[in-house]
Amino acid sequence: MVPLSWYLILAAALFSVGLFGALSRRNAVAILLGIELMLNAVNINLAAFWRYGNVTNMAGQVFAIIVFAVAAAEVAVGLALVISVYRQRNTVIADDIDMMKF
Amino acid sequence: MTAEQIIFLLVAFFTLGSGFMVVTTRNLIHAALWLIATLFGVAVIFALLDAGFLAVVQVVVYIGAIAILFIFAVMLTRKDMRDQGPQMNRNWWFGALISVLTFGGLYFLLQGWNGLSKTAADIPSGFDAVGELGNALVSPNAYVLPFEVASVLLVAALVGAVYVAFNWK
Amino acid sequence: MRAGGFVATEILIWLIPLPPALAFFLIVLFTNKNKTLSHTIAVGAALLSWLGSMIVFVRALSIEHLGEHPFESSINWLPTGDTWFRIGVLVDPLTAVTLFFVAWTVLMIFIYSVGYHNFGQPEGDHDHKGLPPHGATVEDHGHKHAHAVPSVEPMYSRFFAFIGLFAFGMYVLVVSDNLLTLFVGWEIMGLCSYLLIGFWYAKESARDAAVKAFLTTRVGDVFMLLGIVYLYSVTGTLSFREIFAEDVLHTLATVPSSFLGFSAAGLIGLLLFMGTIGKSAQFPLHVWLPDAMEGPTPVSAMIHAATMVSAGVYAVIRMFPLISLDEKTMAIVAFIGAFTALFAATIAVAQNDIKRVLAYSTISQLGYMIAALGIGAYVAAAFHLITHAFFKALLFLGSGSVIHGMEHGVLHTGNHHVDPQNMFNMGGLRNKMPITFWTFLIGGFALSGFPLVTAGFWSKDEILADAFGHGHWWVFGTLAIAAFLTAFYTMRQITLTFLGEPRTKEAEHAQETPWTMTLPLVVLSVFAIGFGWFGIPEHFPALGGLFPNWIHDFVGGTLTEHPEAVEFNWIPLLTSLVVALGGLFFGWAIYRNVQTPAEDKLQIPILKNKYYFDEAYDFLFVKPAYWLAETFIYKWMDKRVIDGFLHIFDPLTNGLGAFIRNYFDLPVINRFFGDGSADVTYWFGGKLRVVQTGRIQQYLMFALVVFIVVGAALYFFVFAV
């Protein structure tokens, strides 16, 4: 039987990898890819706690599904933003998109 | 070491490895494909956790829709990004440091928690996880409100995405 | 939910006032550019309210003892401590008959306004907003020359919006079951009266008249509000049914007020009656009503004959159980009423403006009703209120029709110096305007109390009979003289206007008015005759008992104690016959040959100038107010006293100010705090601006660093301890 810790450590590792992607990639699409990894890590946690806790309480799975929905929404809006910015400034490099600078 | 543990370790390494490739590979199309691999690994993890429904949704929604959306986005925006030039920004080392710190912090926190070596109880026979999940989602006593809010969020995101990406010309 | 039907009566009553209010908002907000749509909405709304009122009236008729079990319905409105102030609707017999005449007159006046404001005529050549239309020139197809026709009112839609709001106020007042909403309706009408009298606001006289009407009625309203407040403080309720409960009335009658030995009921009654004095233009607040004739004629008819001034009398009739508790108050009411009746009638004799005669006649007739109430003739007052509303609306609309016809003549001759309202410019109009003539004749005879056939005879006769039967000799005598004068000036008016030969070219070219104006005249004249038959006393010779005395049974049922019908007596009957016929005869005989104002023997200066009331008020109130404001307050108090004080303070404060400025403000506040803090902020800003790169990932990194540091610190220093 796999202990709970293994799942949690896997999720933590996947989260950190995603975080690295989100922090370090130049391409805006790649940043979104990193965020997807982080969301998946969260889902692993949710499913694991459901399985190792009280199985009849469906909260873990329900929130995993809601995370799916949030992820779908986030990707749709995020990619729409990227495309919109690309159209106007002809770049998807996050560092060049610095319109908020002083 | 049981068979289950071996399968878990294999899947976990596959997942982490492809996740690492997602954030490091130069070619964005490849990155998106690696993401699909990662998502598939996560689906297997869900299956290992007896969350069959989540595994199916992971494959259908994540791989079938979200990952494909990424590939399209990459194709639409890669005119000037022929994989040349650096793929990491100047502060990538700092991002790596923060990631390692995060992992270290999480690991440290887990160490101090006593429920860590807990093993799962068997699922009671005749327990219909998918049916229960469906009930929980639409039952007024459970999660119908978050469920409805999520649906509103999806509609709002849909409208917002169309609005933002629309070509006003 | 008694009387069935498709809508419960109680709900229907709530709905009656709504259509005109909706019409007001619709016209003001949306349709004011479109004349046809505006008047369609307004007339349609009046029609709906009329329909609702008629249904309620018919259902009310079918109920036995409606007085004890009226239609009523109320809702919680304002929380007052641990109880609720409730508002609602109430239809008892008095309300039912009032609704009846209000609905009819309002509807007729709405229809009449369409014609009066020349709907369908071209836009005027030089018409301005705020002035009556001057006429338009159109090319005739047959002839070569252009000729003048009446032009449409420039603010046509606005007029319908205003009268819609007005009708709303009146309906609210009538169906209210408490004094507060009654007062709300009352004030809405006051506002509309102001707006409508000043409808042609570019005329200075109209502006002045509007202000005068508003301020004069306000004097009465303030007292009325005081009465309402006093009543509420004594009884804790404003609902009619609750106030008229036996024990509440008893309390009111026995609790003394601190004013001249009146009981609380007497003082409240007096205060409420003062509101009526203002609203119904009784002496001494009657001065606004004649001036209100500056408004368009439908307004004169509606506000100043049929509905608004009736509202004042209605309020007194409504509060009769309370007012009748105190003998002194009743005596005052009777005195004011009788005095006003005679006093206004004498003024009316000397007026030459066709509408002003009617205005004073209205004051006089309202005085009749008030006097009737003062002697306790409840039913007679209500009866006269209804018949008067019909025939006075008829007379006003008729006079509007006459003026309209005369304006036609004025446009034809092009001589704009001829006043189309002066009766000495008329004459012989019976041939030119036959419908107007016959209906005006009916209205005039009803007003004079022409025996047997007209409604006015029966209602006036009942008042006289009551006064005689209860031994109020002074009231009886005064009212009899007033009745004689009424018949006299009415016949004078008819003779000057319609009989004889045209005295001017304009009168020769007068024209009958369109059907929208004559139809209301015909409908109202039916009521001016027919309504009297419902109130024939049972013991009247020959006619008595042919019809049941419906008015007495029905309206009398409003009171808990059914009023006794007075016994028949020949003296008041003969008196009313003599004064009516005598007045009519003299009016015709004297004025048949009078051609100019100079030949009129009754143009006595004191009557002509309305007993100098305007001048007296000017001297007593207006001039002193100006003097107080200008000479006393402005020149003396303000300029000398206050300014003098201020001039002493001026150098003092100046010096202090200069000191503070030079030795404290500039060095400490400005240099040190003001500039100093700005410098520090600027320096830090310059150093910190490099952090703001605009790169989203960098921000995220900063955030995470802080998160990790803070998380670690919390873990080690807070949770781990």
According to CATH, what is the class of the largest domain in chain B?
A: Mainly Alpha
Q: Which bin fits the share of residues in helices of chain B? A: over 70%
| Tally of domains of chain A | 1
Number of domains of chain B: 2
Largest interface: A-B, 73 and 91 residues
Shape of chain A, please? Answer: elongated
CATH topology of the largest domain in chain B: Four Helix Bundle (Hemerythrin (Met), subunit A)
What's the average pLDDT of chain B? 84
How would a crystallographer describe the biggest sheet of chain B? none
Distance, first to last CA of chain B? 63 Å
What this model shows, in words?
By secondary structure, chain A is mostly helical. The radius of gyration of chain A is 17 Å and the shape is elongated. The model of chain B has no long low-confidence stretch (mean pLDDT 84). Chain B folds into two domains: 84 residues, NADH-ubiquinone/plastoquinone oxidoreductase chain 6, subunit NuoJ (Four Helix Bundle (Hemerythrin (Met), subunit A)), CATH 1.20.120; 42 residues. Chain C is globular and about 115 Å long. Chain C contains 28 helices and four strands. Chains in contact: A-B, A-C, B-C.
What structural keywords apply?
heterotrimer, A: 102 residues, mainly alpha, Helix Hairpins, elongated, B: 169 residues, Four Helix Bundle (Hemerythrin (Met), subunit A), 2 domains, 71% helix
Structure summarized in a few sentences:
Chain A is an all-alpha fold and 102 residues long.
Topology:
The complex is a heterotrimer of chains A (102), B (169) and C (721).
Chain A: H1 4-24, H2 28-52, H3 59-89
Helix pairs in contact in A: 1-2, 2-3
Chain B: H1 3-24, H2 28-48, H3 52-76, H4 92-111, H5 129-138, H6 144-165
Helix pairs in contact in B: 1-2, 2-3
Chain C: H1 9-15, H2 18-31, H3 35-61, E1 71-80, E2 83-91, H4 93-116, E3 136-139, E4 146-149, H5 156-175, H6 179-197, H7 204-235, H8 240-243, H9 246-254, H10 264-279, H11 288-291, H12 297-306, H13 308-318, H14 320-323, H15 327-349, H16 354-374, H17 378-413, H18 429-432, H19 434-448, H20 455-469, H21 473-498, H22 505-508, H23 515-530, H24 550-556, H25 570-591, H26 605-608, H27 613-688, H28 696-719
Helix pairs in contact in C: 1-3, 2-3, 2-5, 3-4, 3-5, 4-5, 4-12, 4-17, 4-23, 5-6, 6-7, 7-10, 10-13, 10-15, 12-17, 13-16, 13-17, 15-16, 15-21, 16-17, 16-21, 17-19, 17-20, 17-23, 17-24, 19-21, 19-23, 20-21, 20-25, 21-25
